[in-house]
Write a structure and sequence with these properties.
With 599 residues, the chain is an alpha+beta fold. Helix content is 31%, strand content 29%. It contains 18 helices and 32 strands. The strands form 8 sheets. Strands 2-3-1-4-5-6 form a 6-stranded mixed sheet, with helices on both faces. A 6-stranded antiparallel beta barrel has the order 7-8-14-11-10-15. Strand 4, helix 4 and strand 5 form a beta-alpha-beta unit. The radius of gyration is 38 Å and the shape is elongated. It starts with a strand and ends with a strand.
């Protein structure tokens, strides 16, 4: 299936042409048929001589219904541009041409309709003018066919031309995330809510759970059934006109411009960084304008950064990604101002004076074809899933990071930012150690806060690559724990005393006289100089091994009193030491009064 949207001025014969090609009535409303004026979108389909199925989205040509026209042409990849041979190029023709150019549509056919009402010279003149007007657009070299829908002349040639054009249309993506812009919502008795749209990429399957992004928020929905061209299917791929029977939602809750999405796969954004593709310079457009994306029409505010770049703030959040095309329209004159391309779907906020200059520089440096390095550099660190949602990584396989980007698990980090984190952390630790040599370092939480890391998982690689150490919930300089500064001499004196009598632990008064408080002893323990037990007992790190040697000589099991005597110490020291040996699994307590060495 291919989907072709019509375009062209009012009363150019677009609906008559579709009727002649398909044998179906595209005008859905009685008022349209009574007035002979297309007001809203119409739909019809047929099979071309090659056997290729094609659906038409017929759009209104009157300037008052330009918004409806843009909703019809927005998701369509191919256009049938109609100019009446007996009237020639009209003002609305220019609007529709500008819309086609804004959307970047490059596949189509030019039809000179009502050829039976024009002379051969008129047809030639109108074609010449049309070629001139379409110069610079994707349709500048499109094939042209003169047709009389009422007499049937030229229809066979048009069908053959359409066949040829559609054969050259690039194949759509059938896998990956799905985004279906809704153009109609209604209720069918016995079935419930039905929505329709043009499926441009991805595949729909009956039973799919999708995210409905509506005017009033987001909600989950389930696809109960699928149809295309009045036929039911279990699955449908692109490009197709599709009708979805939805569960868990009322038709009144869905409107044109809503979107059905693969859950959690799209950024939902209200602020965009854009680049001018066609039309008026941004410095010359009104601040308040209408933005058309897919079938959506959303009021927006534009802040220009020169003629070609701007910040766009939408009144309603939309699922947009890098490279998406937008049509900007003046709500006052109804005219098309031009086309824009999304450069940044989740740009940084403007918080301070001077941020605008940074914004302008950043936008100007972004690559419209996809700039992973620019996105990562602009944010410092982003998750891989974020890059996929923005459309910067399009495959489901492992992606290779560009030069200048480091990958740590799910995080992509700009190399200069990672280096800055290392430098800032090391500098902070050096300052801390100089100020307080006994400090255990920075707690992991303090280090994360210092660097403003987006994820605690990033701290470990920063510490590792900065050549730092991480122990006991703290980050420290390598070897800093061994440097006790002025306290070192007091610790050395304590070591000398314990070396002479390993189990004669100094009392609180002795420790205080040496200037060794809780903080100093904790630093000495981190340095591996002492071992602290409960109740303020301080021994050498070798004391447990020496104790085990003596306890192993005792008759097993032994009492606390026997252990105290064997070690030549007091109960104040013996009890905490025995409890420490129990905790290491070297001794085992049998009852309230006995222990045994674990052999």
């Amino acid at each position: 299936m291919h989907v072709v949207a019509t375009a062209g001025h009012v009363d150019s014969g677009k609906s008559t042409l579709v009727r002649a090609l398909t044998g179906m009535e595209p005008d859905r409303w009685e008022e349209e048929r009574r007035r002979g004026l297309t007001i809203d979108l119409g739909y019809a389909w047929t099979t071309l001589p090659s056997g290729q199925d094609v659906a038409f989205v017929d759009v209104p040509g009157h300037e008052r219904f330009l918004g409806n026209m843009l909703a019809g042409i927005g998701p369509a990849p191919v256009v049938c541009f109609v100019v009446a041979a007996d009237e020639g190029w009209q003002a609305q023709s220019s609007d529709h041409r500008d819309a086609v150019a804004a959307l970047g549509i490059e596949c189509g056919v030019v039809v000179l309709s009502r050829a039976d009402r024009a002379s051969g010279q008129q047809v030639a003149d109108v074609l010449s003018r049309t070629r001139l007007e379409l110069a610079g657009t994707g349709l500048q070299d499109a094939p042209a066919v003169a047709v009389s829908a009422t007499e049937g002349t030229g229809l066979a040639e048009l069908r053959a031309t359409l066949d040829d054009v559609l054969a050259r249309v690039p194949s759509p993506t059938t896998t990956g995330r799905l985004r279906l812009w809704v153009d109609r919502s209604f209720t069918i008795t016995g079935s419930g809510t039905v929505v329709t749209g043009t499926l441009a990429a991805g595949t729909l399957v009956q039973g799919d759970r999708l995210q409905l992004l509506g005017h009033d928020g987001s909600r989950p929905v389930v696809v109960r059934g699928l149809q295309s061209r009045d036929t039911s299917y279990s699955s449908l791929g692109p490009v197709n006109r599709v009708a979805l029977n939805l569960r868990d939602v009322s038709a009144a809750d869905i409107r044109r411009g809503d979107a059905l999405l693969t859950p959690e796969a799209w950024p939902i954004t209200g602020v965009l960084g854009i680049h001018r593709i066609t039309g008026v310079a941004y410095t010359d457009v009104p601040e308040q304008l209408m933005v058309h994306a897919g079938t959506a029409a959303v009021p927006a505010r534009l802040r220009p950064f020169g003629a070609d770049h701007a910040r766009l703030v939408l009144d309603r959040r939309l699922p947009l990604v890098l490279g998406d095309r937008l049509v900007l329209r003046d709500p006052g004159s109804r005219s098309v101002l031009g086309g824009a391309q999304v450069l940044d779907a989740e740009p940084p906020a403007l918080r301070r004076r001077g941020d605008g200059a940074h914004w302008a520089k950043r936008l100007a440096g972004l690559d419209a074809s996809g700039d992973v390095l620019g996105e990562v550099a602009g944010r410092g660190a982003v998750q891989e899933q974020h890059l996929r949602r923005l459309g910067l990584l399009t495959t489901t396989h492992d992606a290779e990071a560009p030069s200048g980007v480091l990958v740590f698990g799910e995080w992509w980090v700009h190399a200069p930012v990672f280096e800055a984190w290392q430098h800032r952390l090391r500098t902070a630790l050096e300052a801390l150690h100089e100020r307080d040599p006994l400090a255990p370092g920075l707690s992991q939480g303090a280090a994360r806060d210092l660097l403003k890391l987006p994820d605690e998982k990033l701290l470990a690689p920063v510490v590792r690559d900065a050549g730092l150490e991480q122990e006991g919930g703290h980050v420290r300089l390598p070897g800093s724990h061994a440097n006790l500064g002025a306290v070192g001499s007091a610790v050395a004196e304590l070591e000398r005393r314990l070396a002479a009598d390993a189990f004669h632990a100094a009392g609180a008064d002795e420790l205080a006289a040496l200037g060794l408080g809780v903080r100093e002893l904790a630093a000495a323990e981190r340095a591996g100089r002492v071992l602290r037990l409960r109740d303020g007992v301080v021994l050498l790190p070798t004391a447990p091994a020496l104790a085990m040697r003596e306890l192993a000589r005792l008759e097993q099991p032994f009492t606390t009193s026997q252990a105290r005597q064997a070690l030549g110490t007091t109960r104040r020291v013996a009890v905490p030491l025995l409890e420490y040996l129990d905790s290491r699994g070297w001794t085992r307590r049998l009852d309230a009064g006995h222990r045994t060495v674990v052999r």
